[in-house]
Amino acid sequence: MIPEKPLIDLEVKQSRNQSSANGKLAWRLSLIVLAGLIFGFAIAPIYDVMCKRFGLNGRADSVATNFDKSIKIDKTRWVTVNFTGNTMPGLAWSFAPKTISMRVHPGEISLTSYTARNNANNSVLGVAVPSVTPEIAMLSFKKIECFCFKQQTLRAGETREMPVMFYVKPDLPKDINELTLSYAFFNGLPSADKAGLQASALRALN
Amino acid sequence: MSSTTTTHDAHGHDDHGHPTGLMRWVKSTNHKDIGTMYLWFSFTMFLFAGALAMGIRAELFQPGLQFIKPEVFNQLTTLHGLIMIFGAIMPAFVGFANWQVPLMIGAPDMAFPRLNNMSFWLLIPAAILLLASFFVPGGAAAGGWTMYPPLSVQGGMSVDMSIFALHILGVSSIVGSINIITTIFNMRAPGMTLMKMPMFVWTWLITAYLLIAAMPVLAGALTMLITDRHFGTHFFNAAGGGDPVLFQHVFWFFGHPEVYIMILPAFGILSTIIPTFARKPLFGYASMVYATAAIAVLSFVVWAHHMFTTGMPVAGQLFFMYSTMLISVPTGVKVFNWLATMWKGSMTFETPMLFSVAVVFLFTIGGFSGLVCAILPVDIQLQDTYYVVAHFHYVLFSGAAMSIMGGVYYWIPKWTGHMYDETLGKWHFWLTTIAFNVTFFPMHFTGLAGMPRRIPDYSQQFAEFNMISSLGAFALGLSQLLFLYVVIKCIRGGAKATNQVWDGAQGLEWTVASPAPFHTFETPPQVK
Questions:
Q1: Is B331 a catalytic residue?
Q2: Which of B254, B270, B412, B518 has its Cβ near the most Cβ atoms within 10 Å?
Q3: Total tally of structural domains belonging to chain A
Q4: Neighbours of B383 (CB within 10 A)
């Protein structure tokens, strides 16, 4: 019986080694799971950065730019800028551009405006999301002032003129001589309100 | 005596007889029992989601609205997709992995038997959530299995149930995959090097890696959806500065690897069955391994071909078009290897082989129609038409599901100890294959002619082809009841299976008795 003893120990040891090796590998594999989870959420900011960089899906378009004084007006070239706009479901506003189309020189600052009317019986918060087509033109279309930079509140039945001040940069690709600026007006969300309230509550605390 | 007791304590389970009754299944840590439960779960879900498809085809039998309201039609297409993918195909492959991986590598069980039990039992609440979502106010989720916002943000509580179900299924898949990888790396029989592993084990190893990398990304997308729905974030809401297209990127970053998760184990099954019945070793084993790995790596850089029409820069579209086309290279390697395995082999055509040959042929058709969809200007025409429906049913039904059927016929003698009824098996094969093609081949034509998918009604011009598709679909659905009958008949009796079962079969699983005893390979076999 005595020579059997070391054998048992060996077997027990082996199976303990086995299960601790299994456990170690499983924990290492869960690092891949963690990385996948982090990456899944990280796609959101990465997407934001990519869209701003490449002028996609309106992201490069919702911030004001200061006019660069060194830009010269290119009098030799005409660009037609078309305007359109619509309201999304859940927003009882009438919304349309005052001018449908303008011819501008690249580098020249122009002003146009949209008209919005609140048809609801209460005051409503709206958010306009701009976009430019063709998409490649978005990086060259700059807004100095726009109603889309902040939320707009219209009282019941109120009508408001909403100006847009813009210029087209002379680096607009040569083969593009017409572009369209479009706005989609969304109902400002109750949750957006909530986020705003939370932000001001935090400010009050600090 | 003392030796056996100590060893068993260390193994953490007892084998004093066979546990019986309901508790045998509820508390099972045995890879064979858990594999059986996975396969039955999958079959049940397959029949249920198939019944939903019967509803879809009944409505599409004629133009106009006859049986089903449009909103219910949308629920049927959504749940058909979700349940077939997450409830039928994926669990079936996990069932195969449970049964076959330990037997093929000479391991006594999976590395973590209790986690294995948990992985299975998580499926049940998920399935209940999905099925019960039909009965909540507003009905089941109706925005498509891809759950794109804004529909999925606006939907009722059934969307929450579906999201929660998918979270649970994701946890189950991740835990199961970690278990499979650990089993394969740490518990192979002495002498079985990685490059001596059966091809099925290789494909599952790579699939399991895809699962642990891709499923958490889906979890991220779903969590963002939940917080958008209930906690005031706007990841996907344009009014709050988000973007619905973001969801599509996150979803398809998971979704495309998911496509290969559903096909790589099928490739493994084919690579096991074809050499057996061609009576030749698998042609190009090493190239098969590398091709599988290449497909897995490429699957992470092609996702946006699902969203060519969402407004991407041309450079992006071209990148995704070319990377997608590149996948046909390793896939082609596999198809040619199977053909070369069959070349000049002494082939016989038992039911598993019939299924395998049909899969090679039909999956290749699906591969080619995928290549057609990958061509950017063509895809802009074809996206969201029935051509796409034809494409993904050729890869998912005649690729994945029919490989699963072939695999069941191939291994069921080892599982039950009985041979299945060969005549009925062949009937099942021919009915399935013919009915499948009658159903889905005409969809190429209706799709090319512009019939949009996920719509309960259609223009008169598509009437004939839709009637043919519907007739085929009813035959396809009924044929699966024959499959159920063959399986039950085989479990209850039949000719006694030998240990070897198939004379050309190679591998450790054929060295154990048929049916495979409750415990196998407690002392590891030696592999030369």
A1: yes
A2: B270
A3: 1
A4: 18
CB contact under 8 A, B181 and A4: no
Q: Is residue A25 part of a domain?
A: no
For B239, nearest residue in chain A (alpha carbons) = A186
- B213 and A CB contact within 8 Å: yes
CA of residue B208 relative to chain centroid, distance:
13
- Check the CA dihedral B387-B254-B169-B486 and report its sign: positive
Report the 10 Å Cβ neighbour count for A170.
Answer: 16
* Catalytic residue status for B323: no
Look up the pTM and report it. Answer: 0.88
For chain B, the first-to-last Cα distance in angstroms comes to 31
Tell whether B6 is covered by a domain.
Answer: no
Check CB contact under 8 Å for B181 and A29. Answer: yes
What confidence tens digit (pLDDT) does each residue in B255-308 have? 999 999 999 999 999 999 999 999 999 999 999 999 999 999 999 999 999 999
Per the structure, the complete domain to which residue A69 belongs is given by 59-190
ipTM, two decimals: 0.86
- 3-state DSSP call for residue A133? strand
Say whether pLDDT at B19 is over 80. Answer: no
What is the pairing mode between strands A159-168 and A110-118?
A: antiparallel
CA distances from B299 to A44, B76, B207, B447, B522 (A): 20, 29, 11, 26, 38
Q: Quick check: is B287 catalytic?
A: no
CB atoms within 10 A of CB B156: 15
Would you say A106 and A132 are in contact if contact means Cβ atoms under 8 Å apart? no
Q: Are B2 and A8 an interchain contact pair (Cβ–Cβ within 8 Å)?
A: yes
Give the separation between CA A140 and CA A132, rounded to whole angstroms: 10
Show the DSSP H helices in B231-263 as ranges.
244-261
Total domains in the fold of chain B: 1
Are A43 and B112 an interchain contact pair (Cβ–Cβ within 8 Å)? no
B 386-445: CB under 8 A from A: none
The CATH number of the domain holding residue A179 is: 2.60.370.10
B519 within domain boundaries: no
Distance CA A161, CA A99 (A): 12
Interface touch A36/B11, C-beta < 8 Å: no
A20 touching chain B per CB within 8 A: no
Does any domain span residue A4? Answer: no
Is the CB of A41 less than 8 angstroms away from the CB of B224?
yes
User: Are the beta carbons of B128 and B439 closer than 8 angstroms?
Assistant: no
Taking only the tens place, the pLDDT of each residue in B83-114 is 999 999 999 999 999 999 999 999 999 999 99
CB B112 within 8 A of CB A26: yes
Give the model's confidence band at A58: pLDDT under 50 very low, under 70 low, under 90 confident, else very high: low
- Name the E strands within A58-157: 79-87, 93-97, 101-104, 110-118, 124-133, 141-146, 152-154
Please indicate, yes or no, if residue A37 is contained in any of the structural domains. no
For residue B385, give the DSSP letter: B
Contacts of B212 in chain A (CB under 8 A): 29, 32-33, 36
* Helix (H), strand (E) at residue A179: strand A178-187
What is the rounded average pLDDT of the residues B327-356? 96
DSSP single-letter state for residue B155: S
Residue A192 near chain B (CB below 8 Å): yes
Confidence of residue A150 (pLDDT cuts 50, 70, 90): confident
Report which DSSP code applies to B496. B
Q: Which of A25, A54, A129 shows the shortest C-beta gap to B185?
A: A25
Q: Does the beta carbon of B1 lie under 8 angstroms from any beta carbon of chain A?
A: no
DSSP state of A72: P
Cβ-nearest to B111 among A16, A22, A184 = A22
Domain with B289 in it: what CATH number? 1.20.210.10
Domain residues for the domain of B57 are 27-511
Q: Is residue B386 part of a domain?
A: yes
